[in-house]
Every structure is written in C-alpha cells, then in structure tokens.
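Notes to self after the Tuesday call (sharing in case useful).
The group wants a holo model before anyone commits to mutagenesis around the pocket. I volunteered. Ligand is guanosine-5'-diphosphate. Logging inputs and output together so the record is complete.
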Amino acid sequence: MFDTLSDRLTSVLTNLRGKGRLSEADIDATAREIRIALLEADVALPVVRGFIKGVKERAKGSEVSQALNPAQQVVKIVNEELVTILGGETRRLELAKTPPTVIMLAGLQGAGKTTLAGKLAKWLSGQGHTPMLVACDLQRPNAVNQLQVVGERAGVPVFAPEPGNGVGDPVQVSRDSIEEAKRAQHDIVIVDTAGRLGVDEEMMKQAADIRDAVKPDEILFVLDAMIGQDAVTTAEAFRDGVGFSGVVLTKLDGDARGGAALSVREVTGQPIMFASSGEKLEDFDVFHPDRMGNRILG
Ligand code: GDP
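Result:
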C-alpha cells in the first residue's frame, strides 16, 4: 500500500548519507522533499504541516548538531514523527468488566465491515474468547447471508432475524442479541451495521440508534484505505454522526496511495487499532504504529 511513499522517503533520506554535517539549507531542502512525498501520497495537509514542523525543529535543534552521523539522526527523527502521526503506542481492545463486551462496527458499504467481523471473531476465538456475530445490516438483501457465510468460516455463531420475518428492525435485533449473548454465554458480541455507498443521515441515525441500544464498549470505524482523500471526510462524518473509539484500516494490500488513511489518527484523534490486508480471514493484525513506521521507511 505505501510503496510509493516508502520509496520516495527512502530516496530523500538516502541523499543525506555521506554528508558530514547538515546545514540548515540541507535540512530545509530535505523537509521540502518529504513534504512533497507526503502530499503526493494523499496525507492530509494539516497533518503534513505538523509533521514537517516537527522534523525541522528537531533536525535543526541539538539532536542533529550533536549527532555523530546527522543523516542517521534525521532518519530517526522522521521515523519517530511517522510513528507519532500513526498514534505512537499500540492501542488494545477494551474488554468490559462484566461480559459481554460489545464491539460495534461502522463504516461505508464496501469498507470491509462484514469481512472484518469474521476476522475479529476468529482472532478473538484464537485467544480463548467465545464471540458471537450480530447481523444488523438488514438493508442489503444479501448482507445477513454474507455474515452467516463469514461466521461459518470463522467458526462462530451469527445472531440474525429469522428468515421470512420481513425486513426486521436492526435496533431490536441488536438489543435482542445482547440477551442472547448473556444466555448462551458469549463473552464478546460483534455487531455488524449497515453502510451506504456515501455518508447519509438515515444511515448515521440507524447506527446511532444501535449504539444507544447496545452501549458498545468499542465502536470501530472501518475505513477502506483505498478511497483516497475521501477517507478524511468520511472519518469526520462518522466521528460526528456516530462517534468511534478506534479505527480499522482495510485493504492495505491495495496499491492506492493510502496517505489519507495515515491522516485519520491525527484528524479524528482516535487510534488505528487493527489492519486488514486481504480477503482471507487470516489477513488481519493488530495495528502497530512503530512497525508501520519502520515499514514505510523501508
Ligand atoms: P461491508 O460492506 O463493509 O460489509 O464490506 P465487505 O466486508 O462486504 O467487503 C467488501 C469487499 O471488500 C468484499 O469483496 C471483501 O472481500 C473485500 N475486502 C474486505 N477486506 C479486504 C481487505 O483487507 N483487502 C482486500 N483486498 N479486500 C477486502
């Protein structure tokens, strides 16, 4: 996903090698190149500004002048600033003191929510949890069925309205699912919600109603990293319309520029918690800002 950005940053920083000392002009020129690389990768402008400011201040300050090898020191600074915009520390799931822990998934249609529901469930099962999936996307005719397929692949049960019971009320389904989880002793409930192709009020209201009905311990905003600059506005719309406690980046296996997704932490203030990088249930991991930072710097 971040190959172009990674190549660009690596080549900018490689140009510094072999310089015994770095002048202010060297640092300014490098910062300019980094700025262009980030903007071309679609990283949001305010995030780029903060990033460049941090790099410049630190590179011109004592950190570089005292360093034995200024080029390496600049690489270190850029790496640390990258890790900072990606959230710094890894943020773990918050589990409820009294089960079930309720995790609600929100995001646009096609973002990868249903797939993620299966991935999360499988991952949690592997850690000894007993998750249950809940089908609250009753808008799309095939969505319940799709979640059932995913549940089967992940080996976890799916709570859904009985077939033939009409469209069903997703808020009621979500409420009932909590009772069912308690009865059947599932310690984690993962609620899949409906998305639209674009942000709309009705979708936001339904997600907010489900949120109020199940009082989630975590609301994960699922973001397709391939949607480019729309990532930031979509994230802001979900933050304002539903609110979320963490972000999941999906489709990191794609070859789009992806920088907008790198902005989502800074723009929304919420951490990126998981990363999805393929259609298979195994293509999933906890998001580690430091590892991603290292990967981008090659
Ligand atoms: P939903 O509408 O948000 O529930 O999205 P889905 O889970 O149905 O995913 C939409 C499409 O994206 C499906 O074809 C998935 O197989 C695919 N998909 C989901 N996550 C990933 C991912 O991480 N990488 C790739 N390449 N495809 C994904």
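Two things stood out.
The pocket of guanosine-5'-diphosphate is lined by residues 107, 109-115, 195, 250-251, 253, 276-279, 283 (CB under 6 Å).
The longest strand covers residues 218-224.
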